[in-house]
Design goal:
heterodimer; A: 83 residues; mainly alpha; two-stranded antiparallel sheet; 4 helices; B: 393 residues; alpha+beta; 2 domains; 6-stranded mixed β-sheet; 9 helices
Chain lengths: 83, 393
């Protein structure tokens, strides 16, 4: 996805997309694990990177995967519009 | 055509209760035909025969049903009863049902929403209602999937069915069809926005605890010990103040006990309440939705005064979303554990909701979980809350 604004999202914003359903600790853990896997610096993210991270987490089974799929749909709306 | 809302509460056999509910609704609505009926019934009024009576009395009205753990209208609450909410006015309502929720939440919700219209000329506002079987153990999952499919512009309200605290089988229904392990999704198209408000009143009782083994909605161990052992240990002192000892509970009493002491996920900014529903022989605890292994939780409790205030706040939040319109009435999804905490004062909370909305008719039921997903919310399944879905005049 294009990111004309060039805005980068802090990790806390990405974690917040997940924490309401799975808790802050687990959301942070899931994001850090995927960042390591994708070799992303876990400090700030482009919208493309946010979507990549959520896509990876979305592949997990159960509540974590469902939460990430929902977060991805909302992230498109929230930051896609800003872009 | 202005909104008209009628509510009623009745007891007796499903046939007796259904006939009496229909009589009261017809008496209050007069010549106006309801476009939507929502019937909430205890296990004493099984939904199939109750639905048959209501369908016969209102053959052209869409009927949503749920089993409950308590029922109420603006003037009183009851057990072993059936309550009905009837909506008449300029609304269009559509609904679907899906089954096999535990095995395939995406499939069940997908089946329920597949034929729902996304827009309707002349009706710019769409609000969703979600009723589900919480014992399927995927309540948050089903809520998020529904929210994703309906889209961020469609606020969602609803409740998780109950079974009078038996924790065995809960049912939801659409028209004459009633199912367990199921989900019902309805969309209401309206000329003006409806209001959805939610609020809880819990506070932490324990320090942070780590879920060390979990699968799906079952938490096996906490801090390396059987979950129920930890729950007893951390709640014993509080329970003793009420003269209760968790080690002496009978199996049938465990569900109610757990609902007094719910779990909370720390989301960084607030507590997200998660309802434990039952205990297994191995000491594991089943929840109404998935709890990830490794999650940090706290055990919570609540005092009665906060439960009444949170009900009022939920009503105020719903009213605010009506954007200045006068409320005509509301459907209320209220957690059974609030009733357990409040006891005979529960009716005060119910009265408070009606009063905050201008002494309007309300009807609702005591749930095993509440659903509210509005705007930028990132979670929609709640516990120990009041969810108010308000309709404008």
């Amino acid at each position: 996805m294009d990111e004309p604004s060039g805005r980068r999202l802090a990790r806390s914003e990405l974690v917040k997309l997940l924490s309401a359903s799975i808790g802050n600790d687990k959301a942070e853990e899931a994001v850090l694990a995927v960042c390591a896997e994708l070799q992303l610096k876990p400090a700030a993210f482009s919208l493309d990177e946010v979507l990549q991270v959520l896509e990876k987490i979305a592949a997990q089974p159960g509540i974590i995967g469902v939460t990430a799929r929902f977060a991805k749909s909302r992230a498109h709306l929230r930051w896609g519009k800003e872009g | 055509m202005p909104t008209r809302i009628a509510t009623a509460l009745s007891q007796g056999s499903p046939q007796e209760a259904g006939s009496e509910l229909a009589r009261q609704v017809k008496s209050r609505l007069g010549a106006d035909q309801p476009v939507l009926l929502m019937a909430f019934a205890s296990t004493s009024q099984p939904l199939e025969p109750l639905s048959a009576v209501l369908r016969a009395e209102f053959p052209n009205t869409l009927l949503l049903t749920s089993s409950t753990s308590g029922e109420f209208v603006e003037s009183r609450d009851a057990k072993d009863s059936a309550a009905v909410f009837a909506l008449a006015g300029d609304y269009k309502v559509f609904a679907g049902i899906g089954t096999g929720l535990a095995r395939n939440a995406e499939g069940a919700v997908g089946a329920a929403v597949k034929d729902l219209p996304t827009e309707l000329a002349g009706y710019p506002h769409r609000t969703g209602i979600l009723l589900l079987d919480p014992l399927a153990g995927v309540s948050e999952e089903a809520t998020l999937i529904t929210g994703a499919l309906l889209g961020a512009e469609t606020p969602l309200a609803g409740g998780a069915a109950g079974d009078d605290l038996q924790m065995k089988t809960t049912h939801v229904g659409l028209d004459s069809r009633v199912a367990t392990d199921a989900v019902v999704v309805a969309v209401i198209f309206s000329k003006a926005p409806l209001g959805v408000g939610v609020c809880h009143g819990h506070t932490p009782l324990s320090a942070h605890l780590r879920v060390t083994k979990a699968s799906g909605n079952v938490v096996h161990t906490i801090d390396g010990r059987p979950a129920w052992d930890v729950w007893q240990e951390r709640t014993r002192e509080s329970a003793a103040k009420r003269g209760e000892d968790p080690s002496k509970l009978k199996d049938a009493e465990v569900g109610a006990y757990l609902l007094r002491y719910e779990a909370a996920l720390d989301t960084g900014t607030e507590l997200k309440i998660r309802a434990p529903l039952s205990r297994a022989a191995d000491g594991s605890i089943s929840f109404a939705c998935g709890i990830p292994e490794g999650a940090s939780i706290r055990i919570t409790e609540s005092v009665p005064a906060r439960q009444v205030e949170s009900a009022a706040e939920a009503a105020r939040r719903a009213k605010t979303q009506l954007q200045g319109a006068t409320p005509a009435g509301a459907v209320v999804f209220d957690c059974i554990c609030r009733n357990l905490i409040l006891g005979s004062e529960f009716k005060t909370a119910v009265n408070t909701i009606s009063r905050e909305l201008g002494n309007v008719p309300i009807a609702g039921f005591e749930t095993y979980g509440e659903i509210a997903l509005v705007g930028g919310d990132m979670s929609g399944f709640h516990n120990t809350t009041t969810v108010v879905l308000a309709f404008p005049v």
